[in-house]
Amino acid sequence: QVQLVESGGGLVQAGGSLRLSCAASGRTFSSYAVGWFRQVPGKERMFVAAIAWNGASSYYADSVKGRFTVSRDNGKNTVYLQMNSLKAEDTAEYYCAARYGTGWALRAYEYDYWGQGTQVTVSP
Q: Helix, strand, coil: what percent of the chain each, to 5?
């Protein structure tokens, strides 16, 4: 089992920045790739970014490419999502998720463990 806890969400003005954290406990976190997803009420959970087990590769949705950066510190069992140049359309509940194995994935069903989410609200 892996337990994930997100933090760092909040209210920010458009153009501002936030850094989300995903803290893991349980089994060896370095064996897991991690993804970030976001969801607004009434819509499906959407892929945002993902990072491989060792941080050597990452992937981003087109909507956040160049603005968001995913990173990880396996020594601290934590994955980060640095969000810059935030837009109103980035407003959502943000979730981190972990999947066993080295490679990241783009679809929610490919992840085994999920955090409880953290709300990000960007005011226009």
A: 5, 50, 40
